[in-house]
Structures are given as C-alpha cells and as structure tokens.
TrEMBL record, chain A:
Keywords: ATP-binding, Nucleotide-binding, Phosphate transport, Transport
Protein name, as recorded: Phosphate ABC transporter ATP-binding protein PstB
UniProt domain ABC transporter: residue ranges: 37-279
Organism of origin: SAR92 clade bacterium H455
PROSITE patterns, per the entry: ABC_TRANSPORTER_1, ABC_TRANSPORTER_2
Length: 284, 462
C-alpha cells in the first residue's frame, strides 16, 4: 500500500491518465475489526464483460458506507451482488467470496429468500407496490410469517413507519394506495417496507436521485437515525450526500475499488490521485 | 372509354404530373442556390400537382359511378312509359333487368317486344354518351387541376402544409371505411330484425323459453307453429362459453406467467411461437377434432363412470373452444405481465419473496386490469365462435345448465336458419337476424367493458 501520496504533485499527470492498471491495489483502510460483511476478491461478469475487478472490502457493523464513482463504474452492480439481486440478471456471474457474519452468501445451500430478508434493499426509483400503504409495509412480515396476529402486524407496520419517519404523515390514510404518495414519501415508504422485516443490512441504490432537495434531506436524516440499528451501504452520485451521511467512503473506478477511507479523509485528503480527481470534479 | 381505363390513365397522368411539378420546383430552386431556398421540398410540389391532377377527376368518377346507372334507368323507363307501356312498381325491376340483358346481348333480341328492343337501344346509346362525357369531363378536370397547381408553384408557395392537409383527409376517409362498414352491417341487421319483430313480439323473443323455429310453409302442415324464445339459445351459448373459459383462463394465464416470469430466453423463443401456432389452426379443424375425437372420448369416459354423456355435449364443444382460446389469453396476459415494471419485481424479490409469491402478490394484482380486459375480449370471442359449435354442439334447444347434455348456441341456430334455400320474408329466416343483432349487442357491451378496463390499466403505468 502506498501510504501517503503527494497529492499536489500528481495533479498534472491525472488529466492525461485516468486509466487504471490491471494490478491496481485498493488503497486506504479496506478492512475493519468485527466486520458485518466481508468481500474478498469479488469479480462480477456480464457474459464475458467484467464489471467488477477483484474487489476486497469489509463493511463494519452499524456503519454507513458510501460508494461513489463515475457512472458505469460498477458500484450498483457491486451493491446488488451483496443480496444476490444479480441472480435475476441471467447473464450475470459472481466470483469470489462475499460473507455475512462469516457465512458465504454464494454457498449452494444458502437460502436466497432468507438472505434477502436479512439484507434489505431500497432502490433508485421509489417502487411501492400498487397496494395500500399498510399492505406495502405488511408485505415482508406477511411472507416471512413475522406476525401471528393482526395486532402484531399492526404494531410492526406502525413501528416501521415511525422509524421511516412517515407515520405522522400517513397514519390517517393507511389504507389508501401507496402510489398516491409524493415521491419522497414513496421512498420513505420503501424504506419502511425494507425495515419491516428487521434486516441486519440495508442496501440503498441512489435512494435520493429521483427526489427533490427537501425530500432528500429527510431521507438523509433518516439514514443517520437508521445507522444506530442497521448497517447501511449506500450508492450515491452526490458527493455531498456521501460526505453528509457516511462514515466511510469507497471510490470505484472502471470496475475497480480504488480507495476506501473514512469519509472525512476521502473528501479532505484523498490518498489516490483518481479519487482526488473525481471529488474535485475533474471528471465523472 | 371504360372506367378502369380512365382510372389507369388518370393515375398515370398523376405520376407524370408529380415529376413535372417536382422538376419545375427544382428548376426554380437552382438560380436561388439550392432547394433550401424554396419553401417546401421538391417532392411536396410534385405531390401537390399530382393531387390536384388526380383527385378532382377521381372524385367525379366516384360520383358518376354512383349516379350513372339510376339516371340512365329512369330515363329508359320514362321513355317506355311515354311509349304507352304500363309500368307498376313490382314489374319495374324485372323489366329493367330484361332491358339490360337485351342491351348487353345476353338475351337474344329476336322475338322480343319491339318496345323493349327500342328501350335497349336507347340504353346502349345513353351509356355511350355517359362514357364519353365522363371521359371528356375527367380530362378537362385533370388538365384544369394540373394547370392551376402548376401555375401556383413558386419559391414562396407553401406546398407542404397543403399536401399534409390532403394526407390527413385521405387517412380520415380510410378510417371512415371501417366505421361505415360496421354501421352498414348493424343497420342491415337492424332493419331485418325490425321486420322480424313485426311478426313476433319482442318480449316473446327476448324472454321466451321455447325455441322451435319450424313454421308451417303450407296451410295443411301440423305441429309446427313456430316459437321464437331466444333464452335457451343464449343459455346454451353462455354454458359453452363458460366451459371454454374454465379451461382457457387458468391454462392461458398460467402459461403466460410461465412465459413471462420463469421461462429462459431460449425456452421462450420456442414456446411462444408454438403457442401461437395453436391460434393459427382453422376453427373448422378444431370443430371436427371436437366432434370426432373429444366428444366420443367424453361419452365413453362418462359411460365408464356410469354417467350419461350426450355424444354432442356442451363439455366437448366448450372444451375444444377453450383450447382454441388459450393462445389468445396467454398472449394478451403475457403482454400485460411483461408490461409490469421491473422495479415491482425487484422490490418484491428484495424483500425476500420467492418468485411465485412475487407473481401472486405483486405481479398479478398490478396486471389484473389488463388481464381482465384480455379475458373479456376472449369471452366475446367464445360467444361469437361458430364453426366448432356447429360441428360439435347439438341442434336441440334445451334449457339446461348441465354441461354433459347437448345444447345449442345462437351462432349454430343462425347458421341452420340461413343455410340452404330459404324464403327471406318468413319469421323463421328473419329470426336469424334478430339473433345476430342480440349477439352483436351482447359482444359489443362486453368489448366496451373490456376496453374500459384496459384503458384504466393504461392510466396506471404511463
């Protein structure tokens, strides 16, 4: 690991050289003590095209890790391989080791249904089901049998909506359609839906990119609250958002993980010249 | 000149005019420095000239062909009447027929009444005059149109909007053809039905429980008074349609779900066309499959269970009809299921739902309006289906809800009432039109209902 790069000196070169070498090593603090999830030498392919090259990183318990990088750098693909959502893409193939609490997620005997209950996901575009608000939140608990009685279910729904700070806005109209809410409310409904099954990890794939600034601020506030109970991995295009909500930031470039460091460091003293070039807005 | 020749000539002139007009605009554009300096593209100028050339005379041709014959006929008849012949309304068409045949040389002139021969000659002469005046008029119109539009070509003339306007009218008139045809069919059925309801009260027809359309042709025939209660027919139709839907809806829907959600690309590329082949089988083939294979099989199967199954049971006809409708439902349902956004699937799968839970709880409810619309369209197809039931369902109008018995349907009765030599003024034949009208109303209402649902569905996801 090349510990401290003379950032200033490298500036001139960066403009010409945005390519990464095949033997690119991730710089910074990839590994943590007591990790929740560990990824080792992960490669992801779409047919023959390799989208992720040899990524190794840890996600610590109850931390918020942000993944940033230019479009098409593979950060969403990487996020989706953490709960095996890539299984739905026929041509996608994942190599390497992705473990949660030491259990390999790609082991043949692993139950994907159970995994996805433990690793929830929030998508870029709010995608509430065309059902009532109540049924949207109750969907997960129902299919996983988390509530034995109607009263239990009511409680789960209320708690989830409260945690997603949506309860006050919708408690009067729980049985109206979820698609009738505003974009920001819909996204918080999706977060409530995800946390209703009490996952251990929540993956967020650009959760605010379809929202206006006020709704975004609410979601960011929510992420901070949620980080007390959940481990969160968030993909974002907004560097300000990464800086505001995350503890650590991972920078992806052309399918490679370039740098992982505490967020403050990434945005003030990036270790790698590519990271520096990206956060100062010279490409991306 | 014959109308066909004129038509070809006019179209040829139109093409020629196109090139002339286009050439003139190009010639205009050249000194100005290219076609960007004239208002429209050269082909629009060409089209403008061609349209002015051809359209007015074609319109004239159309009108002429409508009014030509009646006018000539009335002149001929008038001349006969002034010649002292007595013509009443009933013999008029017969007489005209004879004169036309004489004029065309179909009937030998020898031995005919001299007055008729004179009339035939008059008709020939009039037709000749009509043809030549038509030709002359059309040529004049063509030349005038050409001259007028030719003189209008200039670098500032707005040919494009004019041509666009004509195109719009042309498309509109094509749409009108379909609409007016429908209207014409409805009206013709309606008028015949009104005639039927003059002899049979409408409430006897709509609410009557007995159908035996044999009426006495001769006075001394017995036992065939004829009764026209349509209820047993509609019950039979509904019974067979219900049996068909019981088979088509679950099978069609599930195969659609398989194709849309589970099948890999390679399976889908084979299975989908294979299903659609089923839709390509002529219904008459389904018909004898039902009559010769399925019906006897069901009868024997029933016998082995101690059930009496009629050899022309509603079950056989409905079952085969259901198979026929499967591809219809599966392809429509496949479309609406594929139209459900991928984000819905992702959302559900990311919650840890299995594929079938996702289908059951999210995909089907989201696609439901579209699926219901498809089913409704399939129902109206089942109700209107004729060939299978003609071959496999019975003739006896029985009022029953037992699918093992033989029933008859509206379409079967229409076919039997209208095939063979029939007199077109007896209630027996006219009943077919009344049945057709009622069938049309029922399927129309179903279609409107289905379209409403489909429309509502569209609003949801656009």
């Amino acid at each position: 690991m090349n510990a401290i790069n003379p950032v200033m000196g490298a500036k001139a070169e960066v403009k010409q050289n945005l390519e990464v070498a095949d033997n690119q090593v991730t710089v910074g603090s990839c590994f943590t003590e007591a990790p929740k999830m560990t990824m080792r030498n992960v490669n992801v392919f779409y047919d023959d095209k390799q989208a992720i090259h040899n990524v190794s990183v840890d996600i610590a318990k109850n931390e918020v890790i942000a993944m940033i990088g230019p479009s098409g750098c593979g950060k969403s693909t990487f996020l989706r391989s953490l709960n095996r959502m890539n299984d739905t893409v026929e041509s996608c193939r994942v190599e390497g080791e992705i473990c949660m609490d030491g259990e390999n997620l790609y082991a043949p005997k692993l139950d994907v249904v159970e995994l996805r209950a433990r690793v929830g996901m929030v998508f870029q575009k709010p995608n509430p089901f065309p059902k009532s608000i109540y049924d949207n939140v109750a969907y997960g608990p129902k299919i996983h049998g988390l509530a034995d009685t109607r009263v239990d279910l009511d409680e789960i729904v209320e708690n989830s909506l409260r945690k997603a700070s949506l309860w006050e806005e919708v408690k009067e109209r729980l049985h109206q359609s979820g698609t009738g809410l505003s974009g920001g409310q819909q996204q918080r409904l999706c977060i409530a839906r995800a946390i209703a099954v009490s996952p251990e990890v929540i993956l967020m794939d650009e959760p605010c990119s379809a929202l206006d600034p006020i709704a975004t601020a609410k979601i960011e506030e929510l992420i901070e609250e949620l980080s007390q109970n959940f481990t969160i991995a968030i993909v974002t295009h907004s560097m300000q958002q990464a800086a505001r909500v995350s503890h650590r930031t991972a920078y992806f470039h052309l399918g490679r993980l370039i740098e992982v460091n505490p967020t403050e460091q990434v945005f003030t003293m990036p270790e790698h010249e590519l990271t520096e070039a990206y956060i100062t807005g010279r490409f991306g | 000149m014959q109308a066909t020749n004129i038509l070809i000539l006019i179209l040829g002139l139109g093409c020629f005019a196109f090139y002339l007009g286009r050439g003139r605009s190009l010639a205009l554009a050249k000194p100005l420095g290219g076609i960007r300096h004239i208002h429209s593209l050269p082909s629009y100028y060409g089209a403008h000239v061609a349209l002015w050339c051809a359209l007015p005379s074609l319109l004239l041709l159309g009108l002429w062909m409508i009014f030509d014959d009646p006018l000539i006929n009335s002149i001929v008849l008038k001349s006969l009447a002034t010649g002292g012949m007595v013509i009443d309304a009933s013999s008029e068409s017969l007489l005209l027929n004879k004169i036309t045949n004489l004029a065309d040389g179909v009937l030998p002139r020898k031995g005919e009444e001299p007055a008729l021969v004179v009339a035939a000659d008059l008709m020939l002469k009039l037709q000749e005059i009509s043809r030549w005046s038509l030709t002359a008029l059309m040529m004049t119109l063509t030349l005038m149109g050409f001259g007028w539009s030719w003189s209008r070509i200039s670098s500032t003339f707005r040919a494009r909007p004019q041509v666009e306007k004509v195109m719009e009218k042309l498309l509109l008139s094509c749409a009108c053809v379909a609409i007016f045809t429908t209207l014409g069919i409805v009206l013709s059925v309606l008028f015949e039905s009104i005639q039927f309801f003059r002899s049979v009260p409408i409430d006897d027809f709509v609410f009557g429980l007995d159908w035996s359309p044999q009426t006495a042709i001769r006075e001394d025939q017995v036992g065939s008074s004829g009764s026209f209660g349509a209820v047993p027919l509609f019950v039979g139709t509904l019974l067979i349609s219900a049996v068909a839907m019981c088979i088509a809806v679950p099978v069609g829907l599930m195969s659609a779900i398989y194709l849309a959600e589970y099948a890999s690309k390679s399976v889908r590329s084979v299975a989908k066309p294979a299903l659609e082949v089923l839709a390509g089988i002529p219904t008459v083939v389904y018909g004898f499959f039902a009559a010769l294979t399925v019906a006897p099989f069901l009868r024997d199967l029933g016998a082995s269970f101690g059930l009496t199954v009629s050899s022309e049971s509603a079950l056989a006809a409905g079952g085969v009809m259901g198979v026929m409708i499967i591809p219809f439902i599966s392809s429509l349902a496949d479309d609406v299921i594929t139209a459900v956004p991928q984000s819905m699937r992702d959302g559900s799968l990311a919650m840890g739902a299995t594929k079938s839970e996702t289908v059951r709880n999210v995909i089907i409810p989201a696609a439901l309006p579209g699926i219901v619309g498809g089913i409704m369209l399939a129902v109206s197809r089942a109700i209107g289906e004729t060939m299978i039931v003609v071959m496999a369902a019975g003739m006896a109008a029985k009022l029953t809800a037992n699918p093992l018995e033989s029933v008859t349907t509206v379409t079967v009765q229409i076919v039997t009432l209208l095939t063979g030599d029939q007199e077109f003024d007896s209630p027996k034949t006219l009943a077919a039109f009344a049945l057709g009208l009622m069938l049309f109303v029922v399927t129309l209402m179903l279609n409107i209902f289905a379209l409403q649902i489909v429309k509502k569905y569209r609003e949801q996801y656009d």
